[in-house]
Amino acid sequence: MQQKLTIKAILIAISGILLGLNFQVSTSHATNETESLSSNKTTFGNVTVNEINAARDNGTIILNVAEVGDEEQYRWVDVSGAENPVINIIAGKDYTFKVSNSTPEVHELIIDSTVNGKASEIAKSDEIQPYAKNIEFKFKSDKASSLEYHCKYHPGMMNGTINVIQ
Ligand SMILES: [Cu+2]
Predict the structure, then answer these.
(1) I need a surface site. Which of 95, 102, 118, 137 has the fewest CB within 10 A?
(2) DSSP-assigned letters across all residues of 81-101
């Protein structure tokens, strides 16, 4: 009986330690998350919830073209449902955009670099036909910068920022 109680006490102590560890791990994870989000906020100004952090995944950026609101309001939409998301990528790393189209219109993804207020096209996808699925488009940017992306045909509705991080 005495022995059983002792074993029980040891087990309770061990699970207490494990719980404590778990708690610490999840706390530090949460802190890192907050730090990286807030540092993005500081650096890039308008980065909030609609953000794709492609830096953390395997280099695939999934976007869907969707119609939102009442009529013909087209947007780039990420897997979380965020519209025209800010996309964070790492300089020098290869990325693949996979774009699907849920609309009856043609779209085309254009990436621009703006120097001294003048935008110039640095990359573009093929035309994304109505209801096309997973149109692939490879992209790499060699140096840290802030780029813009938009649709060739709906630049006012379908546009966002790509942060290239060193
Ligand atoms: Cu479009």
Answers:
(1) 118
(2) --BS-EEEEETT--EEEEEEE
